[in-house]
Design a protein that fits this description.
It is built from nine helices and 14 strands. By secondary structure, the chain is α/β, with parallel strands linked by helices. Helix 1 crosses helix 6. Bound molecules: 4'-deoxy-4'-aminopyridoxal-5'-phosphate. This is Phosphoserine aminotransferase.
């Protein structure tokens, strides 16, 4: 069996130790004689798995007691709609920072349903830097401010957490950077993340929200949309994605017990990203357009100076066991996603390959 280095933006690499544990427990979960996939979500066994996962996530992120953690479905994309439904029950205008493709999708979804005020935008700098804090201009009746902590396609990451008036909750899509480093959860009203990058497999979405916000939902939404209904039912209004929840729990245990927590994870992630950006900056062939303070640790897009080399680059990378380096179809070029489960050796292998490819094509 050979495991290649997988730089996919999502669904993304999972830690080998997690996959091995899942394999070992696949047919017979800890002597129960059945797989987690075959358990009732109402069983004592699954309840223990679900509660343990939440506890471990709370430990990792030091989530304060007045925050609820929800394990939902529908991807981060459903959160684009659930947010306005849940936070606009008392009126007001949702505010957004526009930093690229994912924030724009969140804005478009809000606009389909309600309205949206763009409080700040990176469009005038070609999406190469996030707006500075002083550029954020809220509407008078702001119901919340939403931003995308890390733009997965653009490779643009916030280097600060916006400061808001106390009555305006801050909402953040952290799909591609949650758990990549420590986070002060108390600064946020709502954080959400699709699982398929740093949490686990696709099919699960984690929402972390301050409990006073549960009161703000509209009365006319489907129950599966309601944070309050989901919170009251322990995320089990209906059958949750049990196996994805279990795998997320294994990832949380790996982060706690094998990596040593998010500060240790951040050290590794910082080194991985710095090494790759340095290699890009030192080369004549590769380039990345993002302002250094906003360069994403998790998603590193880069282009080759000569487009005719793209196909050969991807083909030879794959032969070298370096998978999924093709950039998003909307922007082209290359992208290396360096999520938590991509080891430092994988990044070194990628850099070695890139240098050799440049030398051969000079
Ligand atoms: N937000 C961000 C930042 C993302 O990277 C993605 C997926 N790549 C999404 C939202 C959408 O996630 P999903 O496919 O889980 O709906």
């Amino acid at each position: 069996m050979t495991r290649h280095y997988n730089f996919c933006a999502g669904p993304a690499a999972l830690p080998v130790a997690v996959l091995e544990r899942a394999r070992d427990e696949l047919l017979d979960y800890r002597g129960r004689g059945l797989s987690v996939m075959e358990m009732s979500h109402r069983s004592a066994e699954f309840n223990e798995i679900a509660e343990r996962a939440e506890r471990d996530l709370r430990d990792l992120l030091a989530i304060p007691d007045n925050y609820r953690v929800l394990f939902l479905q529908g991807g981060a994309t459903l959160q684009f709609a659930m947010l306005p439904y849940n936070l606009l029950g008392q009126g007001g205008t949702p505010n957004y920072i526009d930093t690229g493709i994912w924030s724009k999708k969140a804005i478009d979804e809000a606009k389909r349903l309600f309205s949206a005020h763009i409080a700040a935008s990176s469009r005038d700098n070609g999406l190469s830097a996030v707006p500075r804090p002083e550029a954020i201009a809220l509407s008078d009746d702001a119901a919340y401010l939403h931003y995308t902590g890390n733009e997965t396609i653009g490779g643009l990451e916030f280097d600060y957490i916006p400061e808001l008036p106390e009555d305006v909750p801050l909402v953040c899509d952290l799909s591609s950077s949650i758990l990549s480093r420590p986070l002060d959860v108390s600064r946020f009203g709502v954080i959400y993340a699709g699982a398929q990058k740093n949490i686990g497999p696709a099919g699960l979405t984690v929402v972390i929200l301050r409990d006073d916000l549960l009161e703000r939902g509209r009365a006319d939404m489907p129950s599966l949309f309601s944070y309050q209904a989901m919170s009251e039912a322990g995320s089990m209004v209906n059958t949750p994605p049990t196996y994805a929840w279990y795998l997320a729990g294994l990832v949380f245990q790996w982060l706690k017990n094998e990596v040593g927590g998010l500060a240790a994870m951040a050290d590794i992630n910082r080194r991985k990203a710095q090494k790759l950006y340095r290699a890009i900056d030192e080369s004549q062939l590769y380039s990345n357009p993002i302002d250094p303070v906003n360069r994403s640790w998790m998603n590193v897009p880069f282009v080759l100076a000569e487009e005719r080399l793209n196909a050969g680059f991807l083909e030879q990378a794959e032969q070298a066991g370096l998978l999924n380096l093709k950039g998003h179809r909307s922007v082209g070029g290359m992208r290396a996603s360096l999520y938590n489960a991509v080891p430092e050796e994988g990044v070194e292998a990628l850099i070695g390959f890139m240098r050799e490819f440049e030398r051969k094509n000079a």
